[in-house]
Amino acid sequence: MEKLMIKGGRPLYGHVPISGAKNSALALIPATILAESVTVIENLPGIRDVQVFEEILRRLGAEVIRDGDTLRIDGRQLRNLPMDDSSVKKLRASYYLMGAMLGRFGEAVVGMPGGCNLGPRPIDQHIKGFEALGAQVVYKDGSIHLTASHLKGARIYLDVISVGATINIMLAASRAEGVTVIENAAKEPEIIDVATLLSSMGARIKGAGTDVIRIRGKRSLQGCRHSIIPDRIEAGTYMIAAAATVGDVTVENVIPLHLEPLSAKLREMGITVKESDESLRVIGKENYQAVDIKTLPYPGFPTDLQQPFTSLLIQAEGTSLVTDNIYVSRFKHVDELYRMGADIRVEGRTARIRGGSSLHGATVRATDLRGGAALVVAGLAATGVTEIIGVDHIDRGYENLEKKLCSLGAEIWRV
Ligand code: EPU
C-alpha cells in the first residue's frame, strides 16, 4: 500500500503548469465513440481515471494510442459489448458510456457508476433525458439497459442542475434526428469543452455555457482534433496550497475566469491574487480573515474545491462556515483534519471551522479524491510529518502531484 509523506511548514514558491481538465477528459474520451473515424485528443492529463477509460475503450474494440499527452482513438471497429465489469463500476464518469453508446449503436448495457462516496448520487436526470429522446431504459442485475430504435430530438427540462446529465444528453442528442433543447442545463466550462468537440465532429450545438443548450443531431459524426481545457480544480488546489503555506505561486496555462469564484474568496481573506492572460499568481501573508463559502453550480464556488479550501480556513482568524449545497456528505476529510489539530464541527451540510489552530503532522486517511487533496494542503501547512494513506484516491485526479509540489519547494515523497 502506497503512502504520501509530507514534511510540512515550507512555503511553496515558483511556477506550476496545470494539466488538462480531468472532468473534461472523462467526457471527451467516451464522446469519441460517436465518431466513425479517428479522433485525436490533446492535453490529456496523466491520471488514473483517464487510464481506466482508455482501457474501457480498448476493450470495446477501439484502437487507442497514447503518445505523451495526446490520445489517438480509432473507433471504427468498435463493438457494442455490455460494459458492466468492475472497472466500469469503479468510475463515476462511466455513465457517459450510456449516452455515447446509445448514440452510436442505439443500445447499451452499462453497470451502475461508482466514484467518490459523497452521499447519494442518483442518475435520474440522465435517464429522464434518454427516455425523452426515445430510449427504453430498464434497470436489471446492477446495470442500466438502454435501447432505442430511433433517437429523436426533444425538449428536456432538468429538475436538478447536473453536469453529468447535461453532457450525457448532449452525447446521445448529437446523433439523434432533429433538435434537442436542454433547459436548466449546467454551465460548467467542461460542458463547453464537450460541446466544442461534438461541434467539430459535425453536430450543431448552441448555448453551451448557458442554461439552455440546443443540439441539432447528425446521422453520422466524423473524428477531429481537440485540445482539452486546463483543469480549474487542479489549479485551484495549488492556489489554495500556496496560500496555506504563506507562499508565492503562479499557476500557469489556466483560464483565469474559470477560477474567479476561488480568486474572489482568496481576496476576501486578504490574500493577493494577480491575474495575467493565462496565469494566476497567489501571494500569501500571515493572518487571514475567516470567510464563509457556499458551494453552487458554476459560476458559484465549486464543490470540488470545498475540501481543500477547508484546510486553508483552519488558518484564518475567526469562524468560517462551509456549506456544501451540491453533495450531502462531502465532509469525510474533517475527521482526519481533526487528528491534525483542526477545530471543525459538522452539522448537516455545514462545517463550522474555528480558525487559528496550528496544524501538526499525523497519520491520516484519504477517503475520496478532493478529501485527499485537502489532507495534502493541510500536510504542507502543518509542522512535522504527515503520513497520508489511501493515495489511490488522489492519483485518480492529480497528475504528477509530488513532482509538481517538489518543484515548488515542498518536501513530499511516496513510500
Ligand atoms: N443529481 C441528481 N440526479 C441526477 C444527477 C445529479 O439528483 O440525475 C444531483 C447529484 O446527486 C448532486 C447534484 O445533482 O447532488 C450535482 O451532480 P452532477 O450530476 O452535477 O455531478 P456529476 O456530473 O456526477 C461532476 C464531476 C464531479 C463534480 C460535480 C459537480 C465528473 C466525472 N464529476 O459530477 O467531480 O463534483 O460534477 O460539479 O465530471 C471530482 O472531480 O472530485 C468530482 C466529484
From TrEMBL:
Stored SUPFAM superfamilies: EPT/RTPC-like
Residues covered by the Enolpyruvate transferase domain: 7-405
Enzyme class at the top of the EC tree: transferase
Catalytic residues as annotated in Swiss-Prot or TrEMBL: C116
Positions carrying 2-(S-cysteinyl)pyruvic acid O-phosphothioketal: C116
Record keywords: Cell cycle, Cell division, Cell shape, Cell wall biogenesis/degradation, Cytoplasm, Peptidoglycan synthesis, Pyruvate, Transferase
Cited InterPro entries: Enolpyruvate_Tfrase_dom, Enolpyruvate_Tfrase_sf, MurA_subfamily, RNA3'P_cycl/enolpyr_Trfase_a/b, UDP_GlcNAc_COvinyl_MurA
Catalysis performed (reactions): phosphoenolpyruvate + UDP-N-acetyl-alpha-D-glucosamine = UDP-N-acetyl-3-O-(1-carboxyvinyl)-alpha-D-glucosamine + phosphate
Pfam families referenced in this protein's UniProt entry, alphabetically: EPSP_synthase
Localization (cell): Cytoplasm
Pathway where this protein functions: Cell wall biogenesis; peptidoglycan biosynthesis
Binding residues for UDP-N-acetyl-alpha-D-glucosamine: R92, R121, P122, I123, D124, Q125, D304, I326
EC numbers on record: 2.5.1.7
Residues annotated for phosphoenolpyruvate binding in this entry: K22, N23
Keyword Cytoplasm carried by entry: yes
UniProt main location, coarse: cytoplasm
Parts of the chain that traverse the membrane: none
NCBIfam families named among the record's database cross-references: murA (TIGR01072), PRK09369.1 (NF006873), PRK12830.1 (NF009470)
Classification via HAMAP family: MurA
Family: Belongs to the EPSP synthase family. MurA subfamily.
Function according to Swiss-Prot or TrEMBL: Cell wall formation. Adds enolpyruvyl to UDP-N-acetylglucosamine.
Name of the protein: UDP-N-acetylglucosamine 1-carboxyvinyltransferase
Organism: Kroppenstedtia guangzhouensis
